[in-house]
Amino acid sequence: MCSESSQFEPQEPSPGRAPHRPAGRPGGAQPKSDGTRHREEVVGRGSGGTAGGPPAFDASGVKDSAIVFTSDAGNREGEPSNTPSQKTTTGGEDWLSVNFYVDFSDFDELSEQLNLAQAAAVDLDSKGSSDETPVFHDEIELCGIRFIVAPRGARLGGGRKALGMKWRLQSEHGLSVLIANMPAAHKTVPNVNVVATSLPLMQLGFDAAWALMQDYVEALGGERSRNKLSRVDACVDLPDVSVEDFCTPFAKDWIVSRARQRDLYESGVFLSSHKAGRISTGFAVGKSPLRLRVYDKLIESRRSPEKLALLEARRWGYMPEKATRVEIQLSRAKLKQYGVDTVEDWIAKRATIVDQLTCNWFRLTDGPVDRNHANRTPTHPVWKEAREAFFQWCKGARNMVLEPLPKLHVDMSKQMKQIVGMFIGIFARIGKPISDNAMFFREVEFAVRDIVGKRDMCAEVQRRALETFVNSSTIDRRDSDDKF
User: Fold this and answer.
1) What is the pLDDT of residues 60-74, one digit of tens each?
2) What is the pTM of this model?
3) Do the domain assignments include residue 351?
4) Are 95 and 343 in contact (CB under 8 A)?
5) Cβ neighbours of residue 195 under 8 Å, at least 6 residues apart?
6) Is residue 51 part of a domain?
């Protein structure tokens, strides 16, 4: 299964319009109704919701009329209006990756359909471009939702224990779906992953994107036992705020931060320090699983007219002369430390998490910092503005308890029994007399001491823990899917 996979990196969908989907909850799988129909790839609909999604979502209710993609986006004549649209929001989730644990009702039928579409996708790839429009047999339709099946699967997670997901699908709404060749949910290993990237989240909104994810699982003929949030990015967009307002205090070290890694972006190049004559376009603090990015959103989105149009319609409300994005990226390891296991946990605790991160983990200060009394240094006005923008969209209590998720018990009794059995066999073969348990323990200790010798077992255990993705200083037992 892994040999058929490639590293998974969801791509932003190309612009277009998805066909309307029949109303109501999806039922069982069904074949694509029109095999000669041309493929329609779409911009997904995106971030800005303020609460958890409903149990289902009818895509026919989404209206795109408020967004018109034009070639002159960002290059308009005359003075832009500075009156935001009533449909705008200050920010939202910019990335949402969710793992599902699913029990499929008829996995054989589903896998056969996916295999046929995957083979057709391979065939399309091999033929290359043609003067004639091909028949797109790589498309499938499940309960009125159209998907394109990729020629090969992908890997979920990183490192030696990454999962090979056999099938990779792109939905008509711009969301990416990975499906493992597993008909039933495993206790610690997900068999479905769904990712919503920036464009779908910005156009749809968080609520609708989350509801669609749940609908997809049902359209595949599956029953969700649970979900686990793998990664989420939270962001705010600040029109008419220059990124230089953030970079200037950052360059002067007017910061209070618990992060050790800091970097600057200059003219779109990732660098670690300023260069004379270069324009700063942002900075980054921290690294995975917790990373903060502040950057010029106008420069970043100039090459994507559809993204620029969505930003104008959903975030800014008009085309500003300057705009800054503040973005916080949280992966599962950090989410677990804040007590976030599921999407529902994130919805309940995100306001508290954002409050903690933008106050205690990192903040810009309004002047030099007294390192002996850092908490006395006032917060910079531009950072206060960013914090307020976060709280405008992630409404909710800021006093939620952020206790780490409980560590799961790992039963090592079988391995310990094997070790005891090995010592029994060794002592029996060499004729070692054992009169009682005390003597057995003593002889085991002598044998282990002889083997260890002068080796530094503390260093070796810490190294092995690092190689197996375990932080031995904070985690004694772990769930085997922490990396996802």
Assistant:
1) 444 343 444 443 444
2) 0.70
3) yes
4) no
5) 10, 95, 96, 97, 98, 175, 176, 177, 178
6) yes
